[in-house]
Fold this protein.
Amino acid sequence: MQQFVNVTLTGLTQGLIYAAFALALVLIWRSTRIVNFAQGSMAAATTFIALALIQAGYSYWLALVVSLASGFVLGAIIERVIIRPVEGGNELNAVIVALGLFVALQALIAIIFGSSFQSFPAPFGLEGFQIGGNRVAFTPNSLYIFGAVVVTMLLLVALFRFTRVGLAMRASAFSQEVSRLLGVKVGGMLTLGWGLAAVVGSLSGLLIAGGGFVYPAYMDSLIVFGFVAAIIGGLDSPIGAIVGGLILGLALSYISGYAPRGSALVTISALVILMVVLLVRPGGLFSSTTARRA
Amino acid sequence: MSDLQNSPSTAGQVTDEAPVAATAAANAPSAAATTGRTLLPQSTLLRHLVLLLLGAVAAVVILEITDPFTNSQLATLSFYAIAAGGLTVLTGMNGQISLGHGALMAVGAYTTALLLQEPDGALPLPLILLISVVMATVVGALVGVAAARLHGPYLAGATLALAVGLPGLAIYFHDFLGGEQGLRVRAPRAPESFESFIGLVSGANATSTKWLAYVGAICLLITYFLLANLVRSRIGRTWRAIRDQDVAAELAGINLGAWRVLAFVVSAAAAGLAGSVLALVVRLAAPSGFTLVLSLSLLTAIVIGGLGSLLGALLGSALLVFLPPWVTDRGIDFGLNNTEAAQLAPFVYGVVLIVAMIFAPGGFVGTVRLRWMTQKAKRAAAARAAAGSSGG
């Protein structure tokens, strides 16, 4: 029973991080119909910026703010300079450009910050709470992850629901031509969308790094998990991304906790889950529209 | 052929169009077929046989005039080029992207490594290569069945998961597949006929490095010969039809799914052979050899060379082999240390991928071919104009 509770709690915490990352992918997919495979590298870059600040003696919170801000700038610049030329073109070109960005950024991080493993501090304790004499696998840091992801999601919902900018962003994601006719600066909205997505991606990068080790490729598996979570949710729905992230987090946690030597099976199980979802419900569990033809 | 000129401008107007501009190279028939004034025979099979023979002679000459280090580099080139050839058929001809070819290479490499655990009682080398190909083909068929229903970013993501996930199996089946350390491969000795052949050709030492370079070259030539014939056959035309207009192709009675799976299977077979050669050349099959970077390098090779072109895949693979040492040296010249300089090569790959996709989506072969054909069209137009003015 206790193991079950612990595995579930770990799964939920991990799932929230996957959800945040999936949300970043979904935000970009909705606005530009591109799966941003460079998201992981972008998040790794901002995490390393935060790490550099922390190592220079600044507080975690300042590093967090700077890292999220640099994520926004990075996302906006990448959209304007690199993604704009291939936007709306054929999908293979955009995928290849995103992959090029992924490789280039990762190598650049290794050149600037080195490719060794470096420990990343967690802002809160990593010792589990005491409940009824038992220590559970829910730490103050998990609570922080929980809070950070939920607050970010609420802010995003508020932005999209209650502000004019959010309305304009939804409009340009819905139909670029109509929005242009109605005076929405679609280009600016796309840039803003990429910036916001990069902020959410950076946050998930920082959260997963907390209390662990970072190295240039540490986000590689998170790209896979985030992508799988987004696909479970249908790639089009923010709510789907969150639920998909939680489902995936729980599933992987149970596999790693209960299967013999399960930790080696985690990535391959993600692949299996992805395949099953794509074959059974290619539109994801939350798609309302029917999938379009190829 | 006439649709080639207007394709770059119209590509991308309709969002879900096939990668027309990117695969301009693939649409063009081989140079011999268009010009009509060439020394090569008209028949496709004969022409490819002549090219195969020329390639074999060129391979022997190149391997004999270069030093042992270059020989081993060329062996590396051969397995990259085999895998890239398979991938370019899949991505360029049939429009399916795969980031999982590194994992399929791992299947071939591990099969070879397992079969060579006891080098004395091992099967003959051609049989080992064949079994590795079959294993990769089986895995490729499984992946292909799933992949046939996906497209674009979905397919990219699924194969990405394959590339990241499959090497993990080697760690899970630790006792059988050697875990992180991987399996050492004891390369089989060269047969005596090879030694006498080398003695006859150049009188040089028939080292084991040289033998493996020859194995790689032979596999490369056979693979490219088969792929080139396949691409010019009914099968290749069907693939291109599916890539360019899947709805029209389906209306014409083509079973899209089955043909997509076939493309994946062919491509996986090439990847399996490449992995098998890799295991022999590197003498190790370990998870660290089949990272995501390997899959992405293959993609870089075919994009830079020109999607859908076997020549492009070969040129791109040459870049993968000869560019990193050069870039690393430049990095050290600029005061980077070794580990930093080693990362310069992937950095350059990434930047080149982006730049190539934005400015020259046809890759090297596609861009050169397009230039050449524009020139030819201009000259023809000028000639017509001259004839018209003199006549009138």
